[in-house]
Amino acid sequence: MKKIMLTSFTLSLVLIGCSDTESDRQSQDSPMNNNHMRGEDNDNRGMGGMNNRGMGGMMNQGNIPALESSSGINELMIPPVLEKQQGEDFDYEVTAQEGSTQFFAGIPTDTYGYNGNLLGPTVRLQEGESVDVKITNDLDEPTTFHWHGLEVPGEIDGGPHGEIQPGDSQIITLEADQPAATLWYHPHVHGTTAEQVFKGLSGMLLIDEAAGSDSELPDDYGVDDIPLIFQDRLFDEDQQLNYNRLMNFDGTLGDISMVNGTINPKLTVTKSVMRFRLLNGANARNYTFRLSNGASFTQIASDGSLLDEAVETDTLTLAASERAEIVIDFSTMTDEESLAILNDEGAELLPFDVVLDDSPAGSTEMRTVDEPFLSEQEKAMPVTKEIELFGMADMVTINGKKFDMDRIDLRQERGVTEVWEVYNRPDMMGGMIHPFHIHGTQFKIISRDGKETEPNEQGLKDSVLVEPDERVKLLVTFPEEGIFVFHCHILEHEDNGMMGQVEVY
Ligand SMILES: [Cu+2]
């Protein structure tokens, strides 16, 4: 209940109406089942029917691994910005490859990365910019390159249809014809998305405001504008990310917290006003962030745009694949105080070392939006697409069906706005949170259980946290044609078929 009081006007929408007690909330907060299967072979992914681990986990919800606090011994890795190619017939090159990373002294862990050993460089586009990107698969297995949140045609969206075979390359054109935002990229090959992300394939994709914008928000990448990719990982006794042994049908959870691929990170803060781009890049874990001194911060952006108005808050929840941009004002926080970003359980995910210099800092001032977030007309539109999320473990479905690449589930005309209603149908055990993601669109949340959109969700979104028994109405427009998937972003649910397809014509 504590949380409900803390989040008086911001994030409470994800809690109110669903959480009666703290334990209730916790059971909804995280995937339920976490039998690690250490040392036991588990190669029955994707099989239908009941599995013991899923059921066992549902009965026994006490084994969600807590994250260990960061010891702060490693400076946070900032992903490098992807550099433009010179003298080539493409602007950027992104290669999925195998690598090796020393997470633990002297022990190499096999990992995957883009253009490197782990994670990928930050791709930066400007509003309105169009670039050619060469994508190459140097892995020994098929992969895809999905530009999460970017409104591109279905052909190059990198969904399950977009497989690139080992050794193959393709040049695609990405156009950033949408507002400035914090997006990301990751593989989306059907059946192995979770494993490929778990091993390290993810990167940030930023759309910057067009030149000439008068924003004073901090925007010096790596200095006062910091990407933060939050992930949890489970290692086996050989310190390997042995997915087949460690995976969990309800989302693979780990006890090791990683930010930008750094274990035990700390960030040295030199500017008094810092902008952080938070990405929940975990396979399944939900994060609720707060500051260790209880101070408030300012949320300025949702998944796909700046918010209509900045929101002061002291807690922020992101489900898997959601993003938010926040600004923290360090000027009132002295270096005597130990300061960190914590999760809900109090684990220190990212300690700060505050050493402010005297140089001028950015501002939290944002442009203000005059029009209401939704017009009366938009609020009154009838529901034309119904989505029902259901199930747990590998018994997950959307509208009673599992994914079939040869089946089109929905059709929608390009440029025509429709209202999707997403319902998370509980089961006998109560059900669990499903983060619902639609490719090829940035939508608006019209309401949650009939209640108006909270200020911190009054921006564009591509993923939405849906509580058990909650009904969320979305205003959805596809600017490009093609076949797009919509799915639960618990990656194991997605791999197990909690996904459908919409054809935009
Ligand atoms: Cu799910």
Q: What does this protein structure show overall?
A:
This protein is mainly beta. The chain has helices spanning 2-6, 22-29, 52-59, 193-198, 243-246, 376-379, 491-495, and strands at 74-75, 92-104, 107-114, 123-126, 130-137, 146-148, 169-175, 181-186, 203-208, 225-233, 256-259, 262-263, 265-269, 273-280, 287-291, 297-301, 306-313, 316-318, 323-329, 339-342, 348-354, 383-390, 397-398, 410-412, 418-425, 434-438, 444-448, 451-452, 463-466, 471-476, 482-488, 499-504. Strands 12-11-10-14-19-16-17 form a seven-stranded mixed beta sheet, with no helix packed on it. Strands 1-13-21-20-15-18 form a six-stranded mixed beta sheet, with no helix packed on it. It has a six-stranded mixed beta sheet with strand order 23-22-25-30-27-28, with no helix packed on it. A hairpin with a 2-residue loop joins strand 27 and strand 28. The radius of gyration is 21 Å and the shape is globular. Copper (II) ion (CU) binds next to loops.
Per DSSP, what share of the residues sits in E-state strands of 2 or more residues?
35-45%
Radius of gyration from the CA trace? 21 Å
Q: Report, as a whole number of angstroms, the end-to-end distance.
A: 46 Å
Structural class assignment: mainly beta
Measured as a percent range, the helix fraction is: under 10%
Bound ligands, each once = copper (II) ion
Helical stretch tally: 7
Number of strands: 32
The side-by-side strand order for the widest beta sheet comes to 12-11-10-14-19-16-17
pLDDT below 50 for ≥5 consecutive residues: which ranges? Answer: 1-62
Q: Could you give a short account of the major beta sheet?
A: 7 strands, mixed
On the 0 to 100 scale, the average pLDDT is: 87
Task: Give the CA-based shape.
Answer: globular
